[in-house]
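Notes from the pairing session

We agreed to fold both candidates in a single pass and log them together. This is the raw record for the first candidate, unedited. Please don't reformat it; downstream parsing expects exactly this layout.

Candidate A
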Amino acid sequence: MVPMFLAVMDQTIVAAALPAIAAELGDPERVSWIVVSYLMAATIAAPVYGRLGDSYGRRRLMFVALAMFIVASLLCAVSISTEMLVAGRVLQGLGGGGLMTLSQALIGETIPPRERGRFQGYLAGIVVSASTFGPVAGGFLTQYYGWRSIFLVSAPLGLLALFLTLRLPARAGSGHPGRFDAGGLVLLIAFIAPLLVALEQMQKADPSALPRALALTVLSVISLLCLIWREKRAAVPLLPIALLRQPSVWRADALAACHGAALVSLTTFIPIYLRVVRGASPSESGLLLLPLTVGVGLGSILTGRLVSRTGYTAIFPSLGLLGATMTMVLVAYGAPYLTVTQLALALSACALFMGTTMGVVQVTVQSEAGHDMLGAAAASVQLSRSIGAGLGAAIVGAVLFMALRSQGAAVTDLFGHLLQEGPSALDMLPAAERGAVLLSVADGFRAAFLTIAAFAGLGMVFAWTIPLRRI
């Protein structure tokens, strides 16, 4: 749980510190790479650790990932330029991708299949807790101790994780030591890196960035096709195509991608909605997000216990995502008429339904993979979720800004002022015009919330069609 907490926290703790980092190191136009570089490296590293963990032993690889993560955190803390910080974040991501994948695989290695659901529920709760803790801790540490402290806090937690990993039983790998698919890794990098950069460009919703984003997307698709061709012929493939062909596995991975798209988009755009439309301060938005994060954690834990007791798996996300889809449609159309308390309750219900998914996905994929490919199976889920989260956030952002642009350039310009100042940015406008602007912005968020509902609905379809429904 500690390595998992570290990996997820480090994806979110930096966000609140970005303005301070840009102010001290300069290069504000490159500051987004501090986030993108970590995500890119972690996504690429996930299947590498999965394959190497299967071959050389997952406990041994956990030591490597933790050591790399701790060293990189210290490097980030002493960075004197944006370039140095980005390099440190790349190294940190290369460690962080292993922390998430190996944590999942070690659960599968240690716990019998019937009991894995309960432990996957705990891990899902850790993921949500870390996602919530990261921005809050990042803002507090940056304000009182400076932005470098957000990287220093990872070192003692990493040392604690190293100590706890020593207590795990040492098991030899069961794969093919000495054989690694280097060509597959090169093609994986050529697939992931352009895709994530393209998604980062799309999130800006800037028409001038569209040709560049399309070119990068084409390069990514070509690399993906070459990767699939390569992995079908590799003796020990980095991505286990034979495993991914199994109906339960590819549907579970697709479900993970849809779930990542819905949940990450929701946690990204709800604070923006609360700020722009409801006038909530950053601290108030953080408090209003607590019911959402608590709901996901509670749903994950309850689902894990039900899986362990009954053996049933796919039925829980099948019904849960149906509830999440209906709740998001309700939020999309009913948000203007809900009080803040009612909105928080609706979001907590949606989160409770979404909590039925990730533990079931991991249990399903690991059950189909067997002991020898637990690492590769866990990595496939992590890879799918990361890509789905990035793609989903980019699509929802594009839908929101397209809806705003359809209302006129003035609304788009005022949206930026609303994000910075809240509703007070409209104080100089006449009352009728002020109401029209807020109505236009609310319509844009309705389109965004319906897009999130569509992701949840697509995930529900995959959940209903998973063949493996009981373990």
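Candidate B (folded immediately after A)
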Amino acid sequence: MASIPDPKAIEEAYLASAYSGVLCSMPRTVGNGDPIVYGSLHKSELMKLYTQYFVQKGKPARELYDLIKVSAGGKCPLCGGVGSVRTLDHYLPKSTFPLYSVMPANLVPCCRDCNTDKLDGFSESPDKQALHPYFDDSKFFTEKWIEAKVVPGLPPVIEYYVSAPENWSERDKSRVSCHFKYYRLASKFSVEAAADIPETIHVRRTIMSSISPYDFSMYLFEKGQTPALPINNWRRVMFSALAMDPWFCENLFDEI
């Protein structure tokens, strides 16, 4: 297979677009058959770079593949750590952007669900791009844009939704909404909350049954402020929602 001419220039162009949030503007490979993508390289050759020389155990590049996988500490950055890292996701899908099939900057450690949810589509509009955990502005990871509400019931249900800060641009608001939708975070977070909330209800029914609704609310509020979890983590958001809900804080759950 022919070598990739000037790979440094390709990477520099990718990084410039990544930091600007416009990776959707990178050149796509379209058309039927096996088109030439760059220089004399065909799409099939670039696709094989990943499947036959990067992923396969025993190949020299497999070491780099494994290093990228462990860089996330085992927690998928696309769904906020709900899933465990099992594979690498091509932020720009290799079927449409084969030129970046083995570029480390384009490879994100992720869980199998997130890798499957995304499929091969990628928006052509900057405001529809999912978040890139390597390059996007820090505000996406340090400011709260996921909220939740309590749906009364026995047991209660936690519903998650997007509520981006008012001072964000319309493009940034759209991007987090799209990321939330692409990776089905509402469903994934609610499932996690459903498994976790019985413990909090048990605490309320037993060792905290005698405290006031206000004091119980303060207890939940403190649990929602833990710096050990990212600000948009499902559990941190859940406790904040529970703390602000009068029905939950006043309920002793005697009927459960």
